[in-house]
Design goal:
By secondary structure, the chain is an alpha/beta fold. Helices cover 34% and strands 19% of the residues. It starts with 8 loop residues before the first helix and ends in a 10-residue tail after the last strand.
């Protein structure tokens, strides 16, 4: 077996391989973020999106099959192509609406080591951020907002201090 050296060392690779990431919204930006996690070998990702692929989605998302994807679920369509990038990654599509999951199964979000959102509606982002902030053991949250070539993101996480 060849010894592969990564930029982030063996401990970083181990952390990446054990990560469980939830991405909310199967947009072109979100799938690009996932591509950058799948290629080096993230352990697991779930893409949560209830929307169907629109013609605009099909025209700007490399992880869709163009017009053949229109009318199908965005999460299922993009996960199929993202999973092809690295067969050692456990990839799942969740076709539920994030609003329904927040209302009926808030513990769902605690099963991940990181939660990333893209252009999530402000009311839903506030609910999710409040939910995750209530528990010091909750996963970090990275909300990303973008419009064209402009984007911003922020991190929400609890610090761990040792005495």
């Amino acid at each position: 077996m060849t010894n592969i050296h990564r930029l982030w060392a063996a401990t970083g690779q181990s952390a990446l391989e054990s990560a469980r990431v939830l991405v909310i919204g199967a947009s072109a930006t979100a799938t690009s973020i996932l591509k950058n996690l799948v290629l080096p070998g993230i352990g697991h990702f779930t893409l949560l999106d209830h929307a169907t692929v629109s013609p605009a989605d099909a025209g700007n998302n490399f992880f869709l099959r163009g017009p053949a994807s229109i009318g199908r679920n965005r999460a299922e369509e993009t996960v199929r192509l993202l999973a092809e990038l690295n067969d050692s990654v456990d990839a799942r599509a969740d076709t539920r609406d994030v609003a329904d999951v927040l209302a009926s199964d808030p513990s769902y979000f605690f099963g991940f080591s990181l939660v990333i959102t893209h252009n999530l509606a402000p009311v839903l982002l506030t609910r999710l951020a409040d939910l995750l902030w209530r528990s010091p053991s909750s996963p970090p949250l990275i909300p990303v907002r973008s419009a064209g070539f402009l984007a911003d993101f922020f991190l929400q996480f609890h610090t761990h201090e040792s005495a």
